[in-house]
Write a structure and sequence with these properties.
L-arginine/glycine Amidinotransferase, Chain A; 3-stranded mixed beta sheet; 10 helices; Amidinotransferase; alpha/beta; transferase activity
């Protein structure tokens, strides 16, 4: 199994704004005062288009699908939460915490991919769990070490343990389960998505280990990464708050490796961390300030990796 891919799906926003339904447990979202909704959306579209341009310029195969005005899906720019694509031709569909995010799941997107020559054999649908109030938000909640068949999950209101174990059984991954916290005011609260505090590359892992408050759990996660020979690059909680954990390694032309992140994440890194990362991949960053502030997600959340076979 390959850990990285050259192909990604991205959804271009048409009515992007802060989603009031996700703000209840996504502490990264902010209200951007004084901006009209149309201005927020226009800024998000500019950031999105510039980001796609940077990716395609280095040879990444980006499938861009436009969002629709109806139904209302303010977070559609983050497709990795509702879908994942696998090398055996499986597509997984995930149960979403926010009701208005459930409308992001669109069958026509699968048609677009099939028209491009991707092969879909089977759809594994976990979405009925929503009826019982259980959620697992795609590769936001679960970080897949595809090569070593391990899946990492920080439990939260959006990442149910039993559902995660069911996914691992269905897809043959060994589960690595823990809790990760961030400081909100004077309290420690669960981080809503694993991919905010951790990134898994082919030969490295970026992790905010200080978020794993339980020392045994922290050691277990770090040991698991070391066991697979990954160089561990630690980030601080302050860096995590600028989305320095929300990165994704992908491949460009001639299989060159790129580590994709936002400009804010890139700026937060120390020269030592940059040096460590650049031993593994070239850093590619793009300004996503509006998307990060209103959406509470960053570069990694915007890219759904496509591992499907091709005709």
């Amino acid at each position: 199994m390959k850990q990285t891919t050259n192909s990604i799906l991205m959804i271009r926003p048409v009515a992007f704004r802060m989603n009031e339904q996700t703000a209840v447990n996504n502490y990264y979202q902010k209200v951007v005062d004084g901006l009209l909704p149309a201005t927020v959306n226009a800024k998000a579209q500019q950031e999105f288009d510039a980001f796609v341009e940077k990716l395609t310029a280095v040879g990444v195969d980006v499938t861009v699908v436009d969002d629709t005005l109806n139904p209302d899906t303010p977070d559609s720019v983050f497709p990795n939460n509702w879908i994942s694509f696998h090398e055996n031709g499986d597509v997984a569909l995930y149960p979403m915490f926010a009701e208005n995010r459930r409308h992001e799941r669109r069958e026509d997107i699968l048609d677009v991919l099939e028209d491009k020559g991707f092969v879909i054999h089977n759809i594994v649908d976990y979405t009925s769990a929503e009826e019982d109030g259980f959620y697992l938000e795609g590769t936001g909640s679960l970080l897949l070490d595809r090569t070593n068949a391990k899946a990492y999950c920080a439990l939260s209101p959006r990442a149910d343990e039993e559902l995660f174990i069911e996914f691992c059984e269905d897809f043959d991954y060994a589960p690595v389960i823990f809790e990760a916290f961030q400081t909100v005011g004077s309290e420690r609260k669960l981080i809503y998505h694993t991919n905010v505090m951790m990134c898994l590359g082919d030969t490295f892992a970026v992790i905010c280990s200080e978020c794993i408050d339980d020392k045994k759990e922290r050691k277990m996660v770090l040991d698991s990464l070391k066991e697979n020979g990954k160089e561990i690059i630690l980030i601080t909680e302050a860096q995590m708050n600028t989305f320095a954990g929300n990165m994704l390694e992908i491949r460009g032309a001639k299989d060159k490796r790129y580590l994709v992140m936002s400009a804010a994440a890139h700026q937060s890194l120390t020269s030592k961390q940059i040096e460590q990362l650049e031993r593994h991949a070239e850093i590619l960053s793009s300004s996503l300030d509006t998307i990060e502030a209103c959406g509470g997600g960053s570069a990694r959340c915007m890219m759904a990796e496509i591992f499907l076979p091709r005709k």
